[in-house]
Amino acid sequence: MRSGPESINTGDDGRDARRSDFIRAMIAADIASGKFGGRVVTRFPPEPNGYLHIGHAKSICLNFGLAQEFAGARCNLRFDDTNPETEKPEYVESMLRDIRWLGFDWGEHLYYASDYFERFYEQAEGLVRKGLAYVDSSPEDTIREYRGTVTQPGRPTPYRDRTAEQNLDLLRCMRAGEFGDGEHVLRARIDLASPNMLMRDPILYRIRHAAHYRQGDAWCIYPLYDWAHPLEDAFECVTHSLCTLEFENNRELYDWVVENCDVECRPWQTEFARLELDYVITSKRKLLHLVQNGIVDGWDDPRMPTLAGLRRRGVTPEAIRALVDMVGVARTNSRVDYAKLEYAIRDDLNTRARRVMCVVNPLRVVITNWPEDRTEMFDAPFWPHDVPKEGTRPLPFGREIVIERDDFMEDPPRAFHRLAPGREVRLRHAWVIRCNEVVRDGAGDIIELRCTYDPETRGGSTPDGRSIKGTIHWVSAAHGVRCEVRLYDRLFAVPEPGAGEEGDVVRDVNPESLVVAADALLEPAVADDSPGTRYQFERLGYFMTDTVDSKPGALVFNRIVTLRDTWKRIADPGAGSTGRPQREHTSKSQPAATPAAERDRSPAVETAYRVLVARHDLPAEDADILARDPAAIRLFDAAVAAWTGTAGGARPLANWIIHELPREAGERSADDLPFDGRELAALVSLAENGTLSSSAARDVLAVLAKEGGDPASIVDRLGLRQVSGEAELEPFVRQVIDANADKVADYRGGRTGLMGFFIGQVMRATGGRANPEVAKTLLEKALG
Ligand code: ATP
Ligand code: MG
Questions:
Q1: Which of 207, 621, 631, 698 sits at a 20 to 30 Å CA gap from 346?
Q2: The model's pTM
């Protein structure tokens, strides 16, 4: 998979042929026009301040993928390590490992921005000499204040007119360490009145007396991102500098830097949408917070969305690459349904993972008509009929077996097709058994079932034609191998963890993201397989041994993914405890990809775009999307007209139409929905004024899109109003504290990381309606 001089690969499997997006189109056009003399150089520039996560995978696959697809192209791996405070060799090493694991290779082209410190500095002196940079000695907040606001131009500080000589002298003293942190900064002299705030004399260098993990104490001034990044690209003769959309505003400054510095190559920046997944955080900073607070067991905790975590969980690089392909490259930010990731994982493992049996929560079953010392060996196929693979293993059956506790019910409803007193069930690969007796211990708990097997049903068929609806898995008690099974689930219980409140993602942690089954029993044939083998445990999901904790003789398995999307079920009011209505996870949950030539707007679209920006002050990105959809504009206009909330509703309304509505609207146009702007405005204002949490507001939107109606009555009907009153919340807090005495003790003993757990429990108890801030305050009070 080395990137190198290969021809454009259209792929026998058709995989690459499927990839066509605005970036690939742009590069093909640049090659055709000879813009860079036919060269294509991309780069992946991570900052080594954490581990790579699934969002980075998108950028890696894109940048290294382009290098593989275009003849003579290459992709540099560059550590963007210009910040002494947060970077570490551990992170560099993990990133090298993770990129290789994902299937990419940088060949010779491994670079460190910190190797360019001297060159950045030379360029800075160059700017100073040209009068394009100056040393500002104002305190940080003065600089901020003088920079003005979106509506007011900035003003020069008293230092803006220092001469080039003065500036050069001061800059040299800054470098020489003659000043303390924050005493001076170097700023570009650009335009204090620019509508782009980033162009108002941005800071290039800051004094920081801090050791750098590669440069030690060699430097005490460190370059800022907007200064260093374009130069790094230019030094490496990168042609296509691809970054995520939040850097769109930085492009103007990027261009200014490469145009005003003394560099030979001219790279161009292009932005694409970040990969954001529901129920997932893609921010190293927030992930670090989880690691540092012990909420997870390190960067490679199998629940983490890091590549290291996904790898340890058992996810393959192929599945991640498939997800990235599925999502595609567009210029519209959208959140991807978590179910897509799970789909990619299952799809990949389906033909990779042999089917075996493991009982996670065992209940002993004695086959009373089976002789004590008899063992029968089945030759059981590893693969179901629809996977064209062969292979079998010996599967022992004896007088005592175990089945899942869940597969027995003493007093079952009619639709329960598994084992119950007097009923029959089929044992996978073996016989039909009938339950005759239930044995209990002194405490009244069921400890054993006594059953008989029907010798006529070997292999599961019934010669007399009687119908046996259920088939369950089992393991021979005498032959099974005891192991630990870690049932991992989504790390977060809400689609947008930490939304709203500043960075506090802890409260959204799913308290059931890890459930340990310590006494599982695995069939013996695979107990000595090599570590890292993946299986489907029949009816339970896909599993792999844990690469850290599993040992021969003490196996530990991680659940990679369940066989079906269990979250639909959990969110169902009939089955779940959250009391919230079902949120459909459909494949239509994102806005359609923006057309490749999306920068060219037709005259009509252009007019609509300008109106949206000028009259409603929408961000360019949002206006661009809305402008292309006349029905959406009609809905937007009607909603703006009906807006009764405080302050301008245009931005939040646009936001809901662009980012939330498509999931619920599916194929329907905004004209075909059973509600209008008035209802949308009412809903959004309930969300904006805090009556509804954002997830509750989404639930209301789902109902609106299905059947229309009045948002306020839907809120009341579903009981979604956010509970913010202390008196109202107090009983829930009490209840949670009373039910979790051991965790309360742990918390008081110093495990303050459990706060997230407690808040999560209060959220559950209130069906997601508690105001988390208030809940937190009350919990802190109660927990002392
Ligand atoms: P984080 O907040 O996780 O630190 P970052 O952008 O600051 O993200 P970098 O190490 O600077 O992290 O990122 C390296 C590259 O990966 C950048 O080019 C960045 O645009 C890209 N990248 C980061 N996150 C995502 C994402 N969620 N989707 C796509 N690309 C991403
Ligand atoms: Mg960054």
A1: 698
A2: 0.73
